[in-house]
Structures are given as structure tokens and as C-alpha cells.
């Protein structure tokens, strides 16, 4: 009894203090469900919120629940939008979120968004509504221009971080850099590598000069070596550098200046950029290689062959390496011998057509796995792969948490045996108990899904393309992968049977994407009926076309198969693209005409 | 294989064709890729003559060894002849009318989306469909995709010796604007910097949409011949054709393409539209002489 009453008067401040040790979002979500009191304490003290699907909850509701919010992370479009599988104007608008935050969360300091559509107006609102705004990170976003960046630069009193990664930004001129006020000295991180246009070099130099705290600076291709050298001389404390264009003449002042500047940067740990890098400029980089932990050469097709080998053999402390496949198996072999600490490797294709010359194969990957046993994250584009290579790789590196293999030619079998790659990928899931993210390719039958369902218990995200034989494949995954959060499938023969095999499963997941599979409108409607807590959205481009033709008064006869209305009784029509996600926000109010929520 | 316990499969309800005997299992799992009964459900990208295609496939152990011509939708490279290429697109139309809608959907999509390689010079629709990669494959972000397709223009050794530091190449400094066409639901993007005259732009628009438009027409039930598939979209600039090219400038006004000098057009055009000429009226457009009197906008 006594204990009970003591708990009843347990001060909120103490509980709040205890909660402050919970940094993991799921933990905070869990404590908020214990009781009303804890819900209230938790929501008022919450400083960071991560919304993995911006349509899972209405912005107003999220903003109202967490008025003390300082940091918001939002993800919008489905992952396959990165590969043009989602039509433009699909959604993922940042505007409603920024407006909702402006109304309810005045203390917002950081906003991170991925695959969202952000307008210049939203950016204006952002910097005016939040007096303490400090950090803006945009990844794979679109819808804004350099004018929006100017607004951010101009109005943020204490901007610390402006990080633009692989966004589509409309170039309206180089003036935006001028917009940083003279008294802005707070910059710690500036990344505009994805900007395609010119920048005002003088403004850039002045900005860097008055930013003593600058630790991360990633320039775009328009910045020449002279400017880079000047900048480097100003910030010897730089830790992360993305170069501009690295074209320079051996005898130029710029080159000499660059060498001396780089040597002063003792803290430099991460390098990227290398646009148009000439072998000479690479020479300048050698002295700092020994301390590098991160190196991104994936925008530098000029760095290959012996140049690459000469560079990489110095990088003995490297943890993360991103390269193009033009380095070849030979280059990867050198990586394997030099970079013993390597944890993450990404090999991107330099030629997107499978018919191109083969540059990396399974040999490169096996070499890496032999030389770098600490490898835990892999993204590998190659022309071919064998089962035995995959089995060897998984034996050598049992610590994979992320394993993504993309064989450029869809449905390509093991060239040594002409068999599917089920056994190889199966070996990966069997040995790598901590595998959280998996992407598979090549010729695959239902068998590989049997293995995934049986062994990949920690798996959270699975990407499948051109694989499987029957509904059973997808069913294995739905039944077996207990921690699955995101499942994305394209061009696989999975139909309604698979879709409806375990409908309650989707409530435990963030989302499901299926495109060019064998599902029908009937199946999708059935799913929508059974699971009202899900948004079942179909993107039907051809149906939308019918509507438009009718609206334009096109007089041709429309055949039975192409009736325009979703409820015309023809439920056997195949659904081109399906996106299912759990939500408490109900159907989207901003869905375009070609998106139907069932 | 040793992990395959009979018990596990028995527990799976409603299994279709998986069988309960060890032999059956081995048959399906061992070396086959489900070529048998499950064929129907299998999504294939290939020529519509299914029987031939399967026979071809059964001949070889692997999928890809000898069937290069069949996978003419770009997975394995160009078709041998233009005729073959034409055959593919013609066949694609037939597919739609008949069975296996799923294959047709994929093929239509592949053909229709053949227009989307960014920053690439548009090719005639026939060979484009054949050469074009599958949409969204390989899975690289468009940012990187643009790099891959334009990086080759930068690899010029003599540049390295020059004393000047280079601004990046013009070819990579694209100016992409959206372009929509009446009757085609999904818009495209077009790089204005890739052209230096209205004629080239007009021809590019023709190539971009020609195949798509013909696809739409066949879609809605009118029987068009294979030859019609390649019918050019002409007269975009002078009002003489079925379609006319218009653009929206930075003030939001809709203008006829072709009135102002090319450079001015490129710097002010924000998006393009290809409208049916019959839909155009004087009231929907402002001419450069700014006749506002009779406009209804």
C-alpha cells in the first residue's frame, strides 16, 4: 500500500529525467503506451521524432502531440521512386508538415527529409517560423530551387548545417551563396555537391573565411582547384571534404597551393567529390590517405586502373569506400590487401547497360571478403555472380547487416553452373544472423524465399526484382520474416494469393510495394476491405489515360478491357503498381488522380 | 538441401504443386526454375510468341545463353535487325488484344518508358524500345544515372594538361523542364540545353512522344497498322499539324513556341505542353506582341 501511494506521487520531473536516457525511438514509443501519465510526460519531453512514412500520420496530429519537438525526420515517397517507378506529382509534400510544425512546434531546430517534394515557399516558411532553426538535411528531394536555398541562407540566424544530398534542385543562378549574411559565422556543415550550376566563388571563399567551426564542406563540380586550395588554407580543421573539379596543371600555382593546403589538414578523415580528377591531383591527396576513414570516388570515372591502385594502397584505415566498377576486380583486390578495417563497400555501375564490358565480377567480391572480414555493409553492382562465390563471401564475412547485390542483367543464372542463385543468397541469410537489409538479383526461384523466410529473422527491409516462381515465394517471406518492415517487389510473378496470404502482417510493417507483378484489382480490393487500417493505393497509369481521353472528347470506341471506372465490375484487371502502408491518418487527401485509394 | 525437412513443407497450407514427397520437392527446388506448371504466373519480358519463346528457353539450360534476340526489350542488347525491332513493337500491340495481359503490361511499359532515359538523345521509337533498358533498372538514383550517361564526354586526356581549370562540361549542365502531351497521362522531362534550335527541339518532342502516342491510340481500341506506330508528330511550331507546342514562361503565361529568339526561350521557359491544335484558341495564348484585348484567361 505504501509503495503504491509513493508511486502515485512520483514526480513527473523524475520520470522525464529517466526518459531522457531513452534515445531509441521505439523505446520512447513503448513507454508512451504504458499509461496516460507517461504518455503525457513522454510527449511533452520528446525532442526528436522520426516519421518513416509521411502518410502514416497526419502532420497536425504529430505536431500537436509533440509541442517541444526540436528535430524531425521525414521520409516521403516509396524507395522505388529513386528509380523512376513512381510517377511525378505522386505526393510526399513537405508543405503540410512544415505548416503544421510552424503552428505547434516553435522550437524546431532540425529538419531532415528524404524523398519529399519541398517548394521554395515551404523553405521560406521554414526559416521564418522557427527562430532557432539550425540544420536542414535534404536527401533525394525535389521541387525547390536555388532561390529556396537563398531564403534559407538569408534568414537563418544561426544556421549550422545545410546538407543537400543528391537532390533535384532547379538552378536559378549562383546568387544564393551571397545570401549568407556577413554575421553568419555558425556554419559547421555545408554540402552543395549535388548542385549542377555555377557558384559565386568569391562568396564561397568569404563564407568559409568567416566560418571557424566548419568541419564538413562538400563542394560541387563548378568549384575549381584554385578556390579549393584557398578554402583549404582557411580551414585546416576540416574533417570532411568534398572537392570540386580536380582538373589542374602540374605546374600551376593552384596545384602547388593545393598540395600544401592539404598537408595542413591533419584532421581530414573523409574525402569525396573528385570530379574530373586528374592523376596529378590524386598525387596531391596521397599524403593524407593514411588517416582517411571515408572515401567516395563514385563520381569519378577518371580514377581507375593504376591511378586508383596507387591511391587506395595508402588508405590503410579506411572504413567506408564508395567506388565505380571501373576499378575492376584488380582494383578491388588491392582494396582487399590494403584496407583491412573496411566496414562498408559500395561499387556502382559506370555503364548502366548490361551489354557493356564486364568490369567487376564475383572475383572482386570474393577478394574483398577474404581481405576485409569486418565488412558489414555492401552494395555491389556486377555483371555476374556465382553461388560458390556467395557462399565463400558469407563464410568470410558473417557480420553483414546490409547486403545488396545487383546483377545488371535481370534473371541471370550462375554462369559456372547455369543454376539459379538460390543457394548463394541462401548462404548469406544462413550465416549473417544480423542481416537487416537485403537486396537480391539474378536468377532466383521460390527456394531463395524459403531460405529468407526461414533464416532472415532480423531482416527489416527486403528488395526483390525479377525473382520467384509462384505465390509461395512471397508467402515464405511474409510468414517467416518476423521483423520485416519494408518489402518492395517488382517484376515478380506474385499474385493475389501471395498478397492475401497474411493480411495482418502488413499492419506490422511500414509498407509494401509491388509493381509489375500479377496482382489484380480484386485482390487489392479484398486487402483494403479486410484491413481498414491500411491505405491500399494503386497507381494505374493506363486507367488515368482513359479518363483523360474521355475528358478530351476523344470519340474512339473504348473496348471492354479499358473501362475507366474503378467499380465497373471488371476486377480482373491487373494492377500495375501497388503501395500499401499502415496509417492512422486515413486515406490521403493529396492523392493525384492516378492514385486510387481502395 | 539438407535443411529441407519434410515437416516444414507439410505445415504450409494450400501449397500448390509443391507436393509432399521428397522427390517432388527436389524436382521443383533442385535445378529447375519453375518452367513447368508455374509458367503461367511467371512474368517474362520477351517476345509474345510464347510457345516459341519457351521452346527456345527449354533448349538451353540457362535463361540467357541463346535467347538474346528474344529479350529485345533491352535486357541483352540491340536486336539483330530493324525489322526484328519493328516486329517487337508490332507484336506488342497484338499481345494486348489477346491473352497474357501481364506480359503485355510489362512490354507496353517497357516500350512506353523507353522515352525516359534522362539526358540521352531521343532515338526513333522502334530501336529505342529495343535498346532501352528496363524502367528503373539497374536501380541507381537518377542523379547517378545522369552522371553515367554523360561522364564519357568528360574523359578527354588533353584536358588534364591544360592550364585552365575547367568549368564543368556544358553537356552535364542540363535544363530539364516538364513536358506534357495531350492524350499521354504521364509527363516527361526534356533537357532544353541539349538543343540549339527550335527545329531540333520539335524533332526531339516528336521522337519522345511518337511511340507513346501511337501506343495510346492502339490501347483505346482503334485498330492501327504497325506502320502507323511510327507516324511522325509534325507541324508543332507552325500550327499546321495535329499538335502544337506551347510553353509556360517564368511569368506563368502560355506562349507559342517559336516566337522569341531561341536563347530567350531557353532562359524563360519553365514547362512545355504539346496541345491538340484544335484545342488552341487565341484566348488561351498570349503572343509576344501582348495583345491582351480579347483574351479570356
TrEMBL record, chain A:
Q: Which UniProt keywords apply?
A: Auxin signaling pathway, Nucleus, Ubl conjugation pathway
- In this chain the Transport inhibitor response domain maps to 67-113
User: Cross-referenced CDD domains, in alphabetical order?
Assistant: F-box_AtTIR1-like
Q: Name one Pfam family in it.
A: LRR_6
What is one Gene Ontology biological process annotated in the Swiss-Prot or TrEMBL record? pollen maturation
Q: Which GO terms describe its cellular component?
A: nucleus; SCF ubiquitin ligase complex
Describe which pathway this protein belongs to, using the record's wording. Protein modification; protein ubiquitination
> GO MF annotations for this entry?
auxin binding
Q: What is its main location?
A: nucleus
Decide whether keyword Transit peptide is in the record. no
Q: Where is the COI1 F-box domain?
A: 10-47
Subcellular location field: Nucleus
Record's subunit section: Part of a SCF (SKP1-cullin-F-box) protein ligase complex. May interact with auxin and auxin-responsive proteins.
Its name, as the record gives it, is: Auxin signaling f-box 2-like protein
Give the classification, highest ranks: Eukaryota, Viridiplantae, Streptophyta, Embryophyta, Tracheophyta
Automatic annotation (TrEMBL), chain B:
Q: Which family does it belong to?
A: Belongs to the Aux/IAA family.
Briefly state the protein's biological role: Aux/IAA proteins are short-lived transcriptional factors that function as repressors of early auxin response genes at low auxin concentrations.
**Lineage of source species:** Eukaryota, Viridiplantae, Streptophyta, Embryophyta, Tracheophyta
Give the UniProt subcellular location, in the record's own words: Nucleus
| UniProt protein name | Auxin-responsive protein
**Gene3D superfamilies reported for this sequence:** Phosphatidylinositol 3-kinase Catalytic Subunit, Chain A, domain 1
**Entry GO CC:** nucleus
Show the InterPro entries listed in the entry: AUX/IAA_dom, AUX_IAA, PB1-like
Q: Which Pfam family, just one, is annotated for this protein? A: AUX_IAA
Origin, by domain of life?
Eukaryota
Residues forming the PB1 domain are 174-277
Instruction: Cite the entry's keywords alphabetically.
Output: Auxin signaling pathway, Nucleus, Repressor, Transcription, Transcription regulation
Instruction: For this entry, list what GO says about its biological process.
Output: auxin-activated signaling pathway; regulation of DNA-templated transcription
* Record-linked PANTHER family: AUXIN-RESPONSIVE PROTEIN IAA17, AUXIN-RESPONSIVE PROTEIN IAA26
| Assembly information from the UniProt record | Homodimers and heterodimers.
Amino acid at each position: 500500500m505504501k509503495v503504491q501511494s509513493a508511486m502515485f506521487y512520483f514526480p513527473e520531473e523524475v520520470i522525464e529525467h529517466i526518459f531522457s536516457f531513452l534515445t531509441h525511438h521505439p523505446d520512447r514509443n513503448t513507454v508512451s503506451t504504458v499509461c496516460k501519465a507517461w504518455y503525457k510526460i513522454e510527449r511533452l519531453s520528446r525532442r526528436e521524432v522520426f516519421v518513416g512514412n509521411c502518410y502514416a500520420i497526419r502532420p497536425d496530429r504529430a505536431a500537436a502531440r509533440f509541442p517541444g519537438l526540436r528535430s524531425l525526420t521525414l521520409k516521403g515517397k516509396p524507395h522505388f521512386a529513386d528509380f523512376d517507378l513512381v510517377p511525378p506529382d505522386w505526393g510526399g509534400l513537405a508543405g503540410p508538415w512544415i505548416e503544421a510544425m510552424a503552428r505547434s512546434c516553435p522550437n524546431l531546430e532540425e529538419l531532415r527529409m528524404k524523398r519529399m517534394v519541398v517548394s521554395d515557399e515551404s523553405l521560406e516558411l521554414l526559416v521564418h517560423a522557427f527562430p532557432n532553426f539550425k540544420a536542414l538535411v535534404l536527401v533525394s528531394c525535389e521541387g525547390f530551387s536555388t532561390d529556396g536555398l537563398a531564403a534559407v541562407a538569408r534568414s537563418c540566424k544561426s544556421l549550422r548545417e545545410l546538407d543537400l544530398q543528391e537532390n533535384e534542385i532547379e538552378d536559378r543562378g549562383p546568387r544564393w551563396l551571397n545570401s549568407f549574411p556577413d554575421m553568419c559565422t555558425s556554419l559547421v556543415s555545408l554540402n552543395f555537391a549535388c548542385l549542377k550550376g555555377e557558384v559565386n566563388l568569391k562568396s564561397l571563399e568569404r563564407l568559409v573565411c568567416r566560418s571557424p567551426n566548419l568541419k564538413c564542406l562538400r563542394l560541387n563540380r563548378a568549384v575549381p582547384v584554385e578556390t579549393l586550395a584557398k578554402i583549404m588554407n582557411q580551414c585546416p580543421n576540416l574533417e570532411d571534404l568534398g572537392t570540386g573539379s580536380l582538373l589542374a596543371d602540374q605546374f600551376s600555382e593552384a596545384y602547388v597551393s593545393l598540395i600544401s593546403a592539404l598537408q595542413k589538414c591533419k584532421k581530414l578523415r573523409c574525402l569525396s567529390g573528385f570530379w574530373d580528377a586528374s592523376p596529378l591531383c590524386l598525387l596531391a591527396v596521397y599524403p593524407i590517405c593514411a588517416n582517411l576513414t571515408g572515401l567516395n570516388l563514385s563520381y569519378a570515372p577518371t580514377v581507375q586502373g593504376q591511378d586508383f591502385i596507387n591511391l587506395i594502397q595508402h588508405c590503410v584505415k579506411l572504413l567506408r569506400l564508395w567506388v565505380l566498377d571501373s576499378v575492376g576486380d584488380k582494383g578491388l583486390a588491392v582494396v582487399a590487401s590494403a584496407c583491412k578495417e573496411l566496414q562498408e563497400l559500395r561499387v556502382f555501375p559506370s555503364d548502366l547497360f548490361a551489354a557493356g564490358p564486364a568490369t567487376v565480377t564475383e572475383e572482386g567480391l570474393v577478394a574483398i571478403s577474404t581481405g576485409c572480414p569486418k565488412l558489414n555493409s555492401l552494395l555491389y553492382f556486377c555483371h555476374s555472380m556465382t553461388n560458390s562465390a556467395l557462399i565463400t563471401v558469407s563464410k568470410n564475412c558473417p557480420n553483414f547487416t546490409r547486403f545488396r547485390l545487383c546483377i545488371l542483367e535481370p534473371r541471370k543464372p550462375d554462369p559456372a553452373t547455369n543454376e539459379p542463385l538460390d543457394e548463394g543468397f541462401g548462404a548469406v541469410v544462413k550465416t549473417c544472423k544480423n542481416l537487416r537489409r537485403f537486396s537480391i538479383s539474378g536468377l532466383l526461384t521460390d527456394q531463395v524465399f524459403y531460405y529468407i523466410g526461414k533464416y532472415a529473422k532480423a531482416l527489416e527491409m527486403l528488395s526483390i526484382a525479377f525473382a520467384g516462381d509462384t505465390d509461395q515465394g512471397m508467402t515464405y517471406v511474409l510468414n517467416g520474416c518476423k521483423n520485416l518492415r519494408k518489402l518492395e517487389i517488382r517484376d515478380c510473378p506474385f499474385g493475389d494469393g501471395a498478397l492475401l496470404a497474411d493480411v495482418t502482417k502488413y499492419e506490422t510493417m511500414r509498407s509494401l510495394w509491388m509493381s509489375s507483378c500479377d496482382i489484380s484489382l480484386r485482390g487489392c480490393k479484398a486487402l483494403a476491405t479486410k484491413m481498414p487500417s491500411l491505405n491500399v493505393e494503386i497507381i494505374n497509369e493506363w486507367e488515368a489515360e482513359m479518363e483523360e481521353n474521355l475528358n478530351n472528347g476523344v470519340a474512339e470506341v473504348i473496348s471492354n478491357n479499358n473501362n475507366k471506372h474503378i467499380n465497373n465490375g471488371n476486377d480482373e484487371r491487373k494492377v500495375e503498381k501497388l503501395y500499401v502502408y499502415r496509417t492512422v491518418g486515413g486515406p490521403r487527401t493529396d492523392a493525384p488522380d492516378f492514385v486510387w485509394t481502395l | 538441401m539438407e535443411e529441407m525437412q519434410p515437416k516444414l513443407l507439410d505445415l504450409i497450407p494450400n501449397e500448390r504443386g509443391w507436393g509432399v514427397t521428397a522427390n517432388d520437392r527436389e524436382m521443383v527446388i533442385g535445378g529447375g526454375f519453375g518452367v513447368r506448371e508455374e509458367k503461367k504466373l511467371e512474368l517474362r519480358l520477351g517476345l509474345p510468341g510464347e510457345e516459341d519463346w519457351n521452346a527456345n528457353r527449354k533448349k538451353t539450360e540457362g535463361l540467357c545463353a541463346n535467347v538474346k534476340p528474344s529479350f529485345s526489350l533491352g535486357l541483352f542488347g540491340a536486336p539483330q535487325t530493324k525489322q526484328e525491332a519493328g516486329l517487337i513493337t508490332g507484336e506488342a500491340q497484338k499481345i494486348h488484344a489477346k491473352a497474357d495481359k501481364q506480359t503485355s503490361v510489362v512490354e507496353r511499359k517497357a516500350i512506353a518508358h523507353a522515352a525516359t532515359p534522362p539526358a540521352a538523345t531521343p532515338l526513333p521509337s522502334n530501336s529505342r524500345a529495343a535498346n532501352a533498358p528496363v524502367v528503373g533498372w539497374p536501380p541507381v538514383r537518377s542523379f547517378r544515372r545522369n552522371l553515367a550517361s554523360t561522364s564519357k564526354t568528360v574523359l578527354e586526356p588533353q584536358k588534364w594538361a591544360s592550364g585552365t581549370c575547367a568549368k564543368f562540361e556544358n553537356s552535364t549542365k542540363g535544363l530539364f523542364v516538364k513536358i506534357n502531351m495531350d492524350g499521354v497521362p504521364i509527363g516527361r522531362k526534356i533537357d532544353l540545353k541539349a538543343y540549339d534550335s527550335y527545329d531540333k527541339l520539335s524533332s526531339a518532342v516528336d521522337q519522345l512522344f511518337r511511340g507513346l502516342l501511337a501506343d495510346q491510340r492502339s490501347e483505346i481500341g482503334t485498330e492501327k497498322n504497325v506502320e502507323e506506330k511510327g507516324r511522325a508528330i509534325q507541324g508543332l511550331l507552325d500550327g499546321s499539324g495535329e499538335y502544337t507546342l506551347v510553353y509556360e514562361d517564368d511569368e506563368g503565361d502560355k506562349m507559342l513556341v517559336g516566337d522569341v529568339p531561341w536563347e530567350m526561350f531557353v532562359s524563360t521557359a519553365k514547362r512545355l505542353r504539346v496541345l491538340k491544335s484544335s484545342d488552341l484558341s487565341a484566348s488561351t495564348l498570349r503572343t509576344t506582341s501582348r495583345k491582351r484585348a480579347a483574351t479570356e484567361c
